[in-house]
Amino acid sequence: MRRIARTDRSRSMAGGIGQERADAAEVVRADQQARASITVAGNALDAGDCRELLCMLGLDEPPRAVRVHV
């Protein structure tokens, strides 16, 4: 039986792919939250209503910076 040894390089590549997927998911999440916030702001009656609706939706926290690998 032949054994295939994994090298450090193969582990880092696999981890890199997982990290790329996580980063892509974070970009999508941040985009969805930004769009939802804009929609809420556009339909709110006033600033207080907007703040209350954003809080109800859990969108009252400022967006986090998203790192994108190019």
Give structural notes.
This protein has 70 residues and is mostly helical. It has a domain at 17-56. 66% of the residues lie in helices and 0% in strands. The protein has two helices and no strands. Helix 1 (8-43) packs antiparallel against helix 2 (47-56). The longest helix is centred in the middle third of the chain and has 36 residues, at 8-43. The chain is rod-shaped, with a radius of gyration of 20 Å.
Q: Tell me the β content.
A: under 5%
- Main beta sheet strand tally, sense and closure: none
Low-pLDDT segments: none
> Structural class, judged by helices and strands?
mainly alpha
Q: What is the average of the pLDDT values?
A: 80
Report the helical percentage.
55-70%
User: Radius of gyration in whole Å, from Cα?
Assistant: 20 Å
Measured between the Cα atoms of the first and last residue, the distance is 41 Å
Shape: rod-shaped
Give the H and E element order. Answer: HH
